[in-house]
Amino acid sequence: MAIKNVITVDLGGTKILTALLNNKTEIVSKYKLPTKYDSGAENLVKSIAKTINAVLTNSKIDQKKISAISLGVPGTVNPNSGIIGNAPNLSIVNFNIKEALQKYFSIPVIIENDVNLAALGIKKYEFKDKVNNMLVVFVGTGIGGALIFNGKMYRGSSFFAGEIGHMKVSKKGRLGATNNSDTFEGIASRTAIVNSITAKIKKGEKSELAEMVKSGEPIKSKSIAKALKNGDELVIKNVESASKTIGTVLGSITTLLNLDTIVLGGGVVEAAGDFMLPVVETAFYKTVLNEPGKAVNLKITKLGDYAPIYGGAALAEEFIL
């Protein structure tokens, strides 16, 4: 049975991005909606179904010609049962999203953690399967991770592997700190960066983002990137601090796991990667031991937001074939 067309849904903390890929792995239709999860999981599933119907309508491809719907979720998921164990950024716990979405379509639904999905896409379509031990880290609303060991996805004993964002990290990036500890994503995600900038602006510090804070307009990655280019000192200081933490944590993980590849992605990295990567690299090489550090290819994904979309095709091959 050959994989034909695949629909991938990347369910994020701020948006639902859905695309249909043909058998040549070309995006033939896509649709995006803001994520609205405050009205419950079932209504979120309706929004997902809406995006799927939109790409089906736009592409004019019959459901019978679609091999699978691959759904990426920001949280712990069991690909076999279809249950989301915990998706904190969506306020979902113990919900069978596969079963709920399957009610709307005759196409087989398969699910995976969103960064795992991105890692599958990066491994297959960016590195042409020529990576052995890879860590993928996406920095956005939160921070998610995925692990490839010996060329295969490592999901862990209870499908929790890769939840790097919930590791305890000190403000200086040290692992396992106590008094001033917080989670990795609580210190270095876009949400954390924005929260820090907002708090300091409210205390009187100057920034070109002050008007956005005053009006209550959400500060997104593009606004952060623009402020960096304009030399906004407050934004530079906060993004630099987050980048140092990212580099330090990745250095410690590499000393433990002896990785050959680390790939960064996510909205804030895609928008501000030119500024962030050199800072990440400096902190990384200050932290990692020399021997494992020399073996690492540290880079930003070229697939950007579409890494999980391409990963949907790879996931379909794994589960449908």
Rg over CA atoms, rounded to whole Å, is 20 Å
Low-pLDDT stretches are: none
Beta-strand share of residues? 15-25%
> Which CATH architecture of the largest domain is right?
2-Layer Sandwich
| First-residue to last-residue Cα separation | 7 Å
CATH C-level category of the largest domain: Alpha Beta
Helical segment count: 11
Q: Main traits of this protein?
A:
321 residues, alpha/beta, Nucleotidyltransferase, domain 5, five-stranded mixed sheet, 11 helices, 15 strands, 42% helix, globular
Would you give an account of this structure?
The structure is a single chain. The chain has helices at residues 41-59, 97-102, 114-126, 184-188, 190-202, 210-215, 221-229, 233-257, 267-287, 290-294, 307-320, and strands spanning 5-11, 15-21, 27-34, 66-73, 76-78, 83-87, 92-96, 109-113, 134-139, 143-149, 152-154, 168-169, 182-183, 261-265, 297-300. It has 321 residues and is α/β, with parallel strands linked by helices. The protein folds into two domains: 5-123 and 306-320, 2-Layer Sandwich (Nucleotidyltransferase, domain 5), CATH 3.30.420; 129-301, Nucleotidyltransferase, domain 5 (2-Layer Sandwich). Strands 3-2-1-4-8 form a five-stranded mixed sheet, sandwiched between helices. It has a five-stranded mixed sheet with strand order 11-10-9-14-15. Strands 5-6-7 form a three-stranded antiparallel sheet. Helix 5 (190-202) packs antiparallel against helix 8, helix 7 (221-229) packs across helix 9 (267-287) and helix 8 (233-257) crosses helix 9 (267-287). The model has no long low-confidence stretch (mean pLDDT 91).
